[in-house]
Amino acid sequence: MVKKDKKVKVAEKKARVAQKQDKKATQKEKRNKVKGKDDGSDAEDADLDAILAEYVKQQEQFLKVTEVVSEPPKPRASATFIASPANSTELFLFGGEYYNGSLASFYNDLFVYKTNSDEWRKVTSPNTPLPRSGHAMCRGGNAGGVYLFGGEFSSPKQGTFYHYNDFWRLEPQTREWTKMEHKGGGPPARSGHRMTYFKNYIVLFGGFQDTSQQTKYLQDLWLYDTQKFTWHSPALPAASPKPDARSSFSFLPHESGAVLYGGYSRVKGSSTTSKTSKGNKQSSRVVMKPVVHQDTWFLRITTPAADAPANSLPTVRWERRKRAVNAPNPARAGATMTYHRGRGIMFGGVHDVEESEEGIDSEFFNQLFAYNIDRNRYFQLGLRRQRMATKKPAGADRAKRGRGKADEEELLRNLALLESKGTVANPSFDADAMQVDETTASIEEPERPEKPTLWEMPHPRFNSQLTVQDDILYIFGGTFEKGDREYTFDEMYSIDLGKLDGVKEIFRRELEDWQGSEDEDSDEEDGDEDMDDSDASDVETVETPSTPVSTAGANYEHAPQAETMSGVGEDTEQAEQQGSALEDTLPHPRAFEPLKDFYARTSNQWQDVVLEAMKYAHGEDARSVKEIKKSAFEKAEKKWWDCREEIQALEDEQEAAGIGEVVSMADRGGGAGAGRTRR
């Protein structure tokens, strides 16, 4: 009787699956008919060459580079957002795509956001790269400028795709584009890849190629020499490990190379489909299963020695890092990361969760993390309201000012010297001229207008564009999905990474209406019932996604039970335990201590650190006083940011306990202070 019941259940299940597949086929045919009516042409017959040629013809109408004040950019995904390397007041946004449920639009406009005046400017040029999304941009390192490679373009119905393999340089100050005609071969066409910089090299890795029939993920590594204008794919040591093929990962610069984290890909796997007519065997087929990568890799680059031959190439080696401490959990795709002072700043992401047999639900995130690269550790960042200023006895305040007056005056003089062209020993230095320059600069540079401050993170999303300029994080756009609908946010926010004192709303506009078929959602919900894991995987592999490929994390698609891959054996590996940034013998910032005060208090110690290092390097007289003080300030600044997350946690604990400013007993001086120290 039990066996009979099982056979009945199996037959019913097979019938439900067959019914679902029939409904899917009918639904797909219905969508194709609707698309044909809307477009008036077959998407598969779209001539991409003709479309791109029309863009070139339109660009030829521009005779020179022009820049005009503009409204904020239209909503878009898979654009590039980068801080200007030439100054601290400009951000560049280029390209991207927008999908409204029916048609995909691609852009090649360059926008400049002036952070000091809250002004958008649109740049037009006769030599702008063609419209694209999923491309990569990065700073040029020692060479300066901004570099761009690759990307993709598709027909409006996304029936055909085109991948670029062109390479461009943007001059941040003049806004001029130059197509780099490199010598020899270069990387093949792709999108979803990432680039970063190391000294005079541009480093490129990964991405994918999509032919509408299949998607091929890449794991090749390329270096571009900005001095010799050549690409080369470095040879890796024999039998050495390397990252799996992937796209949509994070790629951060490092003083010894680069750091890679995460990403997304699809790998081959088997799936059980149905039983044979005899009922005693199962058949399986190969399907492409989604994988969310969680591994971290360090790319160590060694440049040729000074006496090496002129044609010598740098050597590279991939090193897989242990699992980071406090890594975001659960694993998420589409979590974007940008570089800031030895850290990666991560925001957002999405994780697919299977709640029941009835369907798949996705969990979206709006958490903000700082990844300390050297310590391989994540810190979650939260917003912090400004502390209420506590009243201090007037006498104590005057005494403190008196004790630090000399040090503060010396600090201000030193900082002024660092910003000027003169040195301490240079009698030609003119303090009056410097004062005039500062006054002029203050007149020319308008004050930054106040923006509404929010005390919660922006709406959960994935694939937002991030960049940092002058210690301010900027978040542009991003994507959110509900059912089969896809929403591209039309907004931008900023967060001060030093203070974390709220989220500033730079602009925000209402979302545009979704143009997809309304009956698509209801059919999908009805069809998802009574489907097990294997059935879901089968359907996912045969149906063409209705969302643009690169909009969801460079070919990221929601799929049931997306696997997570962290490299071989990482699931059983303990997280790497790194020491605290407060455990070494270097000076540390105190709770609630700004960078300026930290350097004023520890300036002499940092100068001693620099002088000690010089004994073992270039000799004691190898640097001027100005260079020593500049190096001391840079080391202090690096230490202040290295400790920032741990100090913020300490500040939160002290505020919860009602403790205000912490003052060292040694700074107070006097017998009473010494007695307390001994006790």
Continuous helix count: 11
Main sheet attributes: strand count, strand direction, barrel closure: 5 strands, antiparallel
Secondary structure class reads alpha+beta
Oligomeric state as shown: single chain
Proportion of residues in β-strands: 25-35%
Round the Cα radius of gyration to an integer and report it: 29 Å
- Average residue-wise pLDDT: 76
**Which blocks of ≥5 consecutive residues have pLDDT under 50?**
23-44, 421-445, 519-561, 567-574, 668-679
> Which percent range fits the helix content?
25-40%
Describe this structure in words.
Strand 26 (350-356) and strand 27 (359-364) form a beta hairpin. A 5-stranded antiparallel beta sheet has the order 1-7-6-3-2, with no helix packed on it. Strands 20, 21, 22, 23 and 37 form a 5-stranded mixed beta sheet that branches. Helix 1 runs antiparallel to helix 5 and helix 3 crosses helix 8. The protein has 679 residues and is an alpha+beta fold. It has 11 helices and 37 strands. The longest helix is centred in the first third of the chain and has 38 residues, at 2-39.
